Amino acid sequence: MPSKFRVLLEQVLELEAPAREGWIRERCQSDAVMADLLREGVRIDARRDTLLDCGLDSLVSNLGLVPPDESARLGTLIGPYRLTEVVGRGGMGIVYRAERTGSDFSQVVALKVVRDERISNQAQMRFVRERSVLARLQHENIAHLIDGGVDELKQPWFAMEFVEGEPLLQWCDRRSLDVAERLRLILDICAAIDYAHGRLVVHRDIKPSNVMVSRAGVVKILDFGIAKLLEHEAETRLATDAQTRLLTPEYAAPEQVLGEPITTATDVHALGLLIHEALCGFRAFGREASPFEIQRDVVEREPEAMALRLKRAETVEADSIRRAAALRGTDTHRLLRILKGDIQKIVSKALQKEPERRYANVSALTSDVQRYLKGQTVVAAGFGRLYRARRFIARNALQLALGGGAALALLCGTVAVAWQNQRIRQEISTAAAARDFLVDVFNSASPYQGSGRPPTAVDLVDVAVQRAQIELHDQPKLQAFLLNALGTSYATLGHRHDAVRILREAHAAAVSVGGRDSAQAQEIALSLVQAMLGEQPLEPAAAELADGLVAAQRLLPARERKLIVRALVVRALIRFVQGEHAASLATMGGALDEADARGPDDDAEHESSLEALAFVLSETRRDLSAIGVYRDLLDSRGRRQGSSVLIASVQSALALPLMRAGHASEAEALLVAARDVYRTTLGERAADYGEIGIRYGRVLVETHRLAEARAVIADSLSIASTLRGEHSLPFASALCAMAQLERASGNFKTAEALAKQAMMIAQDVEGNDGAYTSAAEHTLGAIYFQEGALNDAKRIFAGEAALGDREGSVFRVQAMDYLGRLQRLANDPLGAAKLHRRAIGIGVAQAGDWSLDGLRARMGLAEDERDVGHADEARAIGVENLARLRVVFAEGHPWVIEARLFLAQIAPVANASVRVEDAADCPIPCPEFRSDEAVPATQRTP
Amino acid sequence: MPNTDVAERLAEDVGSKESRHQLFALIYGELKNRAGKILAAHQNPSLGATALVHEAYLKLVGANIHTCSKKHFFSLASRAMRQIMVDHARHRLYQKRDQRLLEALDDDMPHPAATNMPDLVVLDRALDLLSAQEPDLAEVVELHFFGGLGFGEIGEMKGCSLSTIERQWRSARALLRNTMS
Fold first, then answer.
1. A242: distance to nearest CA of chain B, Å?
2. A3 vs B116: CB contact, 8 Å cut-off?
């Protein structure tokens, strides 16, 4: 029975460090002694210098064992070689300079005696056999193995080409070789290793001390294949485990530590470590840790990125980065930029824990490094994205109290469609029966119509569904198959209600054939849940179906979980719709893990998970994170030359957080491009084209281009009314955009009527708490404010702000800004300033320094400060605001004008014009949205 | 060459006290002999200690034995290793103390051993205490620290996951440290 202390200790150690203290306080409220014991336990756990950490080996050496005396053997013979000098010692053994003299020649060799390793007779024979294989390796960059044997103590020895020169890293540092020059040397190493791999020899122990550069500047790899020779004949894990102790743990690959098969990928890993160390000057693993911890790190921990490693070094010892940069013939800034670029991605790919996820072979690594040196895009570039996405999740899951409802229709236009299109294509092409059936449907469709116009896609699907329902009644498997394809087609065409209906039928048919857990039933269940996600309100059955699907997938062996990623993503989205944001992000993390485990080749899975993740981040106003993930996604799709509609859907989604983050012109450009693609591929009357129009129209309103906005929004309004009718969410959404336009144009009464109508429709369709209803209500509040109906406005904004504190509202910052303004109008500028400061803080946390909501609140704050009587403060804020606004918006934008007027009023009359002009030169940095990992292509070349 | 005697004894009913004692004596003898050689041969010990138990295993048993016997072997060997180390430490400690009496004024530069040896003796006692309360934790420490077994190997032998063993190791570290200080 474990003691209570042990149980609690184990629990507390499982927690992340920052959470521990709170946990201890909560659990040990009445037991101060236990709390102190636990704190002590936590403290000890963090220490790495207890007796148990220093390891038995160092204890033994401290027990009075004297260091070995290698020089004792000098002058004696090993084989035909006379030992003349000790030139090195390492974990594996002692290296002597030795000479062999005959009557007419003298040969100098490096002779290595492997220490403390006795081998059996059987192993000796193998040793001799394999030694001859190694002796045949002839490559300019491999130190040639000349001879080898076993000495009188049964210790193996090797004689190798004697390389006079310096170890690789020392060579590089002494000559201050730059990154490119270092990489070129490593390319020589790669070439040699590739050559050996072609002869079925794996080095297994590549590390800096095993790479020399001769006086002539030629790289020479030592000890090729020797590790293999020393392996015990016993093939058990234990024996291998003992074997790895001959290797330096810092340079071992996970499979070496785990005793798993050694392959050429083991050398790829070692090369990754070599690049890491040569470029940043620090080992990827094993700094202040014990050998056991190093081994664990090798198996489990992602090595720190090179730039981060350097930055951490700087915190330990000042000037580290500058010195590293000097040794690489460059400056601090440039070195960090290089290390953050694509070379890091190459290193990360080489250092993957699973051998199969690394570069397939050394030549793949070589060509990526070569591409990098030429400034071309590297294959590994798409690699870090899941890692990054996971970091976004980690960062956001903690503080996800923000956020609110969402425009889900958008999602169904992207994630679901991407999968569905793919699936439909695959399935239809593989099922001949289904194809014949559909061909028949299409051939007979025209006469069926009889209306004189050519049948639309929806007409065709309608007919096909009817015939499938009737004619395939006795073939449930084929019927289910077809209805699945047709149901997803409905969803693609925007008829989501029909999609759910037909997919439900398909699911029932599939269940009747093979049961609930058959592959077909599972696939259809997934389509069904996806379609349900497009409907509001969400059916409770959707969550159950998704849970069942995830559970069924988990029962399958890992390789066969083909649907797990999508099932988890859909589950996460359902959680999001239900308002469980943290749980949603956690499930999303699970999906990314699964996508990761399925390997780097399944890009569609990765991208879909990323897209869903970005969507949730964006909808919960983690704008900066969302921008990062969307950009990754865009890079990935662009690189794969994915379909233009899929790229456009990401561009259009990215525009929203970009706009909120104050990057208006980029947001607009993205929307224009995306809308063009939608028009040419889907046509001018497609639902998605209308949807993107609403979005574009809103951005145009924000940038005050009202005439253009009117045309675009009116167009979307008409598309929504024809396709979905006037009792639909798209129509409500377009009405709401129109209301915003009218408000911006100063037609407050029209705006109010439109907003009320939009709100009524939305309420009717989705219920009181729906996202569209809140959006319409928010618009109404803004209109009330401008009309001077301050009490009505206050009611709405107070509601939003209160919601924001509890479960989050997307309009939280704006609501606080308005409440601040109301407070100021009520002659409480101090209270107003407090509200505005909070609004600015939250806005910046969500969308960065250039957050539009934040900017608006800053304008409010300037007015508050003026009213409080802090004229200087108000002026300073006003000047900065104007400078920022002029970066984001054009000169004629109402906010810019407002900011100018503000300054003109507040500045002492004599200096007014001067002050306003000052604003133009105010040194505010331009918006910088790229996260620090993403280095623009132009800066990539080393 | 594997020692058939040991292999057979391991395969036998492990319940017999007499057989267990003999087995322990055999393993202890081999380990002590090996440790002694390390001393005598003036070799660098850095490879020696952790590999010692594994090497004894290969020598005495060979690789192809049943997991249950393997576990049996390693717990005995780790115990033996612990005894050897602690005895040695104790011995050195007494030596040192005698020496200290002679050089009472000269303790500016303590031998590094002086800092660790008493610790090892204290660790031995703390481990006894721990094994009375949390025998499973004490076993992990013995196997890992004295036997030189990796967490993975220990998990395999005990039929637990790697993370369980690691958790136990961390708890044991903290508990031992608590008792030792």
1. 6
2. no
Are the C-beta atoms of residues A781 and A374 closer than 8 Å to each other? Answer: no
What's the rounded Cα separation, in Å, for the pair A871 and A879?
A: 12
Which amino acid makes up residue A897?
A: I
Asked if A734 and A717 touch (Cβ cutoff 8 Å), the reply is: yes
Residues of chain B whose pLDDT is less than 50? Answer: 1, 40-47, 99-116
The band of A228, judged by pLDDT with boundaries at 50, 70 and 90, is: low
Of residues A404, A405, A395, the one with CA closest to residue A808: A404
User: Measured between CA atoms, how close is B90 to chain A, in angstroms?
Assistant: 10
B155 neighbourhood in chain A, CB within 8 Å: none
Give me the sheet containing A211-214, strands edge to edge.
A165-167, A211-214, A219-221
In sequence order, the β-bridge partners of residue A113 are A94, A157
Q: Residue A389: its pLDDT value, please?
A: 42
**Distance between CA atoms of residues A736 and A759, nearest Å:** 8
Q: Nearest Cβ partner of B48 from A41, A116, A259?
A: A116
Using CA coordinates, name the residue in chain B closest to A44: B174
Could A59 and B120 be called an inter-chain contact, meaning their C-beta atoms sit closer than 8 Å? yes
Q: Name residues whose C-beta falls within 8 Å of residue A381's C-beta, 6 or more positions apart in sequence.
A: A342, A345, A635, A639
Query: Residue A392: in which H helix or E strand, if any?
Result: helix A385-397
CB burial of residue B133 (10 Å; 0-12, 13-18, 19+): middle
Residues A836 and A815: their CA atoms lie apart, in Å, by: 10
Helix H or strand E encompassing A214: strand A211-214
Question: Would you say the ipTM is above 0.90?
Answer: no
Tell me the β-bridge partners of A537. none
- Chain A: closest CA distance from residue B5 (Å): 19
List chain A residues with CB under 8 Å of B170: 10, 13, 45
Place of tokens 């090369």: A271
Check: CB of residue A732 under 8 Å from CB of residue A775: no
Contact by Cβ (8 Å): A275, A183: yes
Six token digits for residue A718: 């008409």
Could you tell me which of A412, A582, A548, A434 has the C-alpha nearest to residue A492?
A412
For A162-177, the pLDDT digits (tens) are 888 888 999 999 999 9
Residue A241: count other Cβ atoms within 10 Å of its Cβ. Answer: 22
End-to-end alpha carbon distance in chain A: 60
Q: How far apart are the first and last CA of chain B?
A: 44
A44 with B178: Cβ contact below 8 A:
yes
* Angle between helix A342-350 and A306-316 (nearest 10): 100
Q: Are A812 and A402 in contact (CB under 8 A)?
A: yes
The alpha carbon of residue A248 is apart from the nearest alpha carbon of chain B, in Å, by 11
The residue length of chain B stands at 181
Task: Give the count of alpha carbons within 13 A of A355, CB side only.
Answer: 19
Nearest-CA residue of chain A relative to B114?
A62
Q: Contact A343/A942 with Cβ under 8 angstroms? A: yes
Q: How far apart are CA A682 and CA A303, in angstroms?
A: 46
For A422, the 3-state DSSP assignment is helix
Mutate to test the interface with A, among B32, B34, B44, B153 (most CBs of A within 10 A): B44
Dihedral through CA A864, CA A867, CA A872, CA A877, nearest 10?
Answer: 20
Contact criterion met (CB < 8 Å) for B51 and A60: no
DSSP letter, residue A456 = P
Residues A744-782: tens digit of each pLDDT:
999 999 999 999 999 998 888 776 667 788 889 999 999
- How big, in percent rounded to 5, are the helix, strand and coil portions of chain A? 70, 5, 25
* Residue A388: both structure tokens together: 């990054």
Secondary element (H or E) of residue A753: helix A748-766
